[in-house]
Specification:
- The chain is an all-alpha fold.
- The chain has one domain (about 5-145).
- The protein has 5 helices and no strands.
- Helix 4 (about 95-115) packs across helix 5.
């Protein structure tokens, strides 16, 4: 029988996996889709609406895939391993800063993309796709800051087993 604490840990880790999947696919999908369209059909077939739609659909697929992979990975782990992993994820300052940059970028991307391309795309694609583009740019901002040495200080947890 599975303990309730391990069920909560699995759910938490699956949600974090979904977040990571969304962030990664929001970063990769626009570039991959643009390259695909340019190679297959040329520049005349490249539309803002289609890029934005591909971005949010790619992000949704990434969230589903990340959650499924995380659930599959953690569902067979021991209770102690799950607790250690959850504590590690909860107190990882680098990951927290990455998620903060991604959320800020997503909100700004959703608003700014809608304001800039209002007449060129569907409103749903503008908001969701712009949020995905902003999430990817927020991640790139985090990685750029990390590369130049702006690293977050570590967060010390009361019982962080190393």
């Amino acid at each position: 029988m599975i303990e309730l604490s391990s069920v909560a840990d699995i759910q938490f880790l699956a949600r974090k996996g979904m977040t990571t999947g969304y962030e990664v696919m929001s970063l990769l999908t626009p570039a991959a889709y643009t390259a695909y369209v340019l190679v297959k059909r040329g520049r005349s077939a490249l539309y803002v609406n289609r890029i934005l739609r591909a971005t949010w659909i790619g992000g949704a697929i990434g969230a589903a895939g990340g959650g499924a992979l995380s659930y599959a990975r953690h569902s067979s782990s021991t209770v102690d391993a799950l607790q250690r992993r959850r504590m590690h994820v909860m107190y990882d300052a680098n990951r927290l800063r990455l998620e903060d940059h991604a959320v800020i970028g997503g909100v700004l991307g959703g608003v700014l993309t809608t304001a800039i391309f209002l007449k060129r795309a569907n409103v749903v694609n503008l908001i969701l796709g712009g949020g995905g583009l902003g999430t990817g740019l927020g991640m790139l901002t985090h990685y750029g800051k990390y590369a130049v040495g702006d690293r977050p200080p570590p967060i010390l947890s009361p019982s962080f087993p190393e």
